[in-house]
């Protein structure tokens, strides 16, 4: 990414493809040469580096919680504001390891899921069971972009008011999750009918309102149990401490604001992860790739709004199991090996701002 997001509005066009007309994605055939190159050129990149994962997660969480404490203790509001921004950005990075957890073979990173949930997932009210078993459906060959995809809505074809509503939902996330874990979880443990609703509707990080989750099975069932129990104990304890005055309302408000800030940044990133131009038809892998976004140009801002490899979201859809620290090298290899006419280059975009503008213009055209 370039040094600044403040570039020309028309930079929403792909880096190597000037055409802006919407493609009918359901008619796009697979680019066999691209798929073959993606598989062959990255065979040696699929092993996660334990040191990178643990160091990145621990340092991000440590900076985030340190900045959160500084926000509470700051002697003036300007200092509190600066510390709060640092807390949001660092905890945002730490929280995004939930995405890696959904694709990792956990045997290759022993105890990483446990450590992440204890340090990040439960305190931020997003234990990994809320994403594991949900996000992988978004990558399913026959589900992407359809009504059965929990993470897809045709936002580019929806009304302009859907974008602010989409962001408002992120602002309300911490309150909703506190209700989910402090109220609905214990009640649903003794009311079977409520439990069915909680599992189906309120147990997954999704954007598709009609998607309903199935009850967990196998290993996920036990993971779900202890993670939900931990999040419930944490939420009930926190609300009790606030109600009894042990935790001041001001500090509780800062906690909610930091989590909301993390959620809003992630929601903005989600808005530019895809072009959201599929009309509900099943797509080929290449069509899914073209409906997804890479923002490969390096720059400081890219590491803030799309950390943990998420600026290569289209590439991630080609190679979902590739560790985040290998995506940059994979992109370099594929960019060098594939000719300019390849579909691979058509999913590369220069900036966040241009993508947001493209989406906003598309929704305006849907009025």
Automatic annotation (TrEMBL):
Protein origin, superkingdom: Bacteria
GO biological process: lipid biosynthetic process
Pfam families: FA_desaturase
One MF annotation (Gene Ontology) recorded for this entry: oxidoreductase activity, acting on paired donors, with oxidation of a pair of donors resulting in the reduction of molecular oxygen to two molecules of water
Keywords associated with the record: Membrane, Transmembrane, Transmembrane helix
Transmembrane segment boundaries: 52-73, 79-102, 114-131, 161-187, 224-246
InterPro entries: FA_desaturase_dom, Fatty_acid_desaturase
Ranges where the Fatty acid desaturase domain occurs: 76-342
Assigned GO CC terms: membrane
Keyword Membrane belongs to the record: yes
Stated name of the protein: Fatty acid desaturase
Organism: Sphingomonas kyeonggiensis
């Amino acid at each position: 990414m370039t040094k600044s997001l403040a570039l020309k509005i028309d930079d929403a066009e792909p880096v190597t493809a000037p055409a802006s007309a919407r493609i009918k994605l359901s008619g796009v055939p697979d680019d066999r040469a691209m798929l073959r190159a993606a598989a062959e050129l990255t065979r040696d990149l699929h092993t996660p580096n334990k040191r990178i994962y643990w160091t990145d997660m621990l340092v991000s969480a440590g900076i985030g919680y340190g900045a959160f404490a500084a926000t509470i203790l700051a002697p003036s509001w300007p200092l509190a504001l600066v510390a709060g921004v640092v807390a949001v950005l660092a905890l945002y990075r730490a929280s995004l390891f939930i995405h890696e957890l959904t694709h990792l073979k956990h045997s290759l990173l022993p105890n990483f899921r446990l450590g992440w949930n204890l340090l990040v997932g439960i305190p931020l009210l997003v234990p990994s069971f809320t994403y594991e078993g949900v996000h992988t459906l978004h990558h399913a060959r026959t589900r992407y972009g359809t009504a059965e995809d929990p993470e897809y809505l045709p936002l580019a074809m929806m009304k302009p008011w859907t974008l602010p509503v989409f962001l408002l939902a992120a602002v309300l996330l911490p309150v909703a999750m506190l209700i989910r874990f402090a109220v609905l979880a214990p009640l649903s443990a003794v009311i079977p009918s409520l439990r069915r609703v909680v599992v189906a509707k309120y147990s997954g990080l999704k954007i598709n309102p009609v998607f309903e989750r199935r009850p967990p099975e196998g290993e996920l069932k036990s993971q779900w149990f202890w993670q939900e129990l931990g999040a419930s104990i944490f939420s009930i304890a926190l609300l009790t401490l606030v109600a009894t005055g042990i935790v001041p309302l001001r500090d509780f408000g800062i906690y909610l604001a930091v989590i909301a800030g993390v959620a809003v940044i992630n929601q903005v990133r989600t808005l530019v992860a895809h072009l959201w131009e599929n009309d509900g038809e099943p797509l080929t892998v290449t069509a899914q790739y073209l409906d997804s976004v890479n923002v490969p140009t390096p720059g400081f801002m890219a590491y803030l709004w799309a950390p943990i490899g998420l600026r290569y979201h289209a590439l991630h859809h080609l190679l979902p199991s590739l560790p985040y620290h290998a995506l940059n090298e994979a992109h370099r290899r594929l960019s060098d090996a594939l000719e300019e006419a390849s579909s691979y280059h058509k999913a590369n975009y220069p900036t966040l701002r241009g993508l947001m503008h493209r989406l906003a213009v598309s929704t305006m055209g849907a009025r």
